[in-house]
């Protein structure tokens, strides 16, 4: 089968799914997919625990050498294939006369995105719950024990978790059912500017809390002595996961990108926005934590126990605490819609189905799978799938540590060695010379080896270290 130019493919698919109205709406959508719950609490904490500024420098290097190349490859594959991840890969495989094995990339992305959304919706529901708790004044002047008890009581109540899980999933389904322009675009056009605005407001508020200098030192003091091999691999893993790579989302979004949009500079912009939000979140969160003498290393509890406690002790904390969880919810929504879109696009294309019907059906199915995660925190808390992993732990482990890294390696290898060189050159605007050399070095060697290192390290720490302890 002769190669069909991406312009011809665009004409073929454009009327079916739609296209981004502008380059900047794609930037906002891709940034919205990348900016999620992990950016807001995980990055600042792991930076402070792994050498502060030293970790940030290593992390930025990993984003540049591993994250951005794979993200560029995903958008390139989506735009060149002009379809959902499964169909885009199928089109490219046929044009390159390659092995059908490579179709696994599309299925891995769609499957991982669906499974991640099933439990992501549960956790995002917690943020919706805390908007109400902060805004209603329940957490004003609470003690540490009271804040912890509120959260534990909430988790132990499956009916409350199901309610907020249902509400969040309904919002996601409603948005994606409306299509690219009326649904996805309108959501990011509203949510992302509000997210940035709320982040600025919280930055100003936290700067006046009295703990800003301590927080800045926690995140940015260059403690190279604390930067060990583990820290490098953590930075590498965070660089990969923070950009929503190998979940099918970026490839699906790439299918809606116009031919005039320069992929390399656009994706670089997305990575800058994602990293900036992560850093700004740390500078908004940790001054409040330090000003109240609280523990900055409490992981997920930082968001749902430590921060509510801190806001509850501060003047105006009721309002700004509600704004913080509103910010978290916006970040969660923009990420969640990108997780459902790849599967929805595939089913609409494959079966010529109505988008709204597919969105509702897949939303209900995803919601049902999410009930396993809901019950993992209460009724099924002592029910283990493998070892000491509950349903929630197991799904999280399989997606984050197996499906995504494996998909990332395959994406890099497919883009590097299977996609015809003329397609890559056309999509990325490569004209040979130094830029082409750098691209080939990154996508053929550095990026796949980097993700493979994260994959091997995770398996090693999970399987081998417990046996030697």
Structural write-up:
This protein has 469 residues and is an all-alpha fold. It has one domain: Hydantoin permease. The protein has helices at 6-17, 23-34, 37-49, 53-81, 85-96, 104-135, 144-155, 158-176, 179-207, 212-220, 229-241, 249-254, 263-291, 300-313, 317-351, 355-376, 391-417, 421-428, 433-468. Helix 2 packs across helix 9 (179-207) and helix 11 (229-241) packs across helix 19 (433-468). The longest helix has 36 residues, at 433-468. The model is unreliable at 1-13 (pLDDT under 50).
Structural class: mainly alpha
Radius of gyration: 22 Å
End-to-end span in angstroms?
56 Å
Number of helices: 19
The portion of residues assigned to helices is over 70%
- Rough shape? globular
CATH topology: Hydantoin permease
Strand content: under 5%
Unreliable residue stretches: 1-13
In the CATH scheme, the class would be: Mainly Alpha
Largest sheet: none
- Overall domain count: 1
Order of helices and strands: HHHHHHHHHHHHHHHHHHH
What does the average pLDDT come to?
89
Kindly state the number of beta strands. Answer: 0
CATH architecture: Orthogonal Bundle
Using brief descriptors, characterize the structure shown.
mainly alpha, 79% helix, 469 residues, single chain, Hydantoin permease
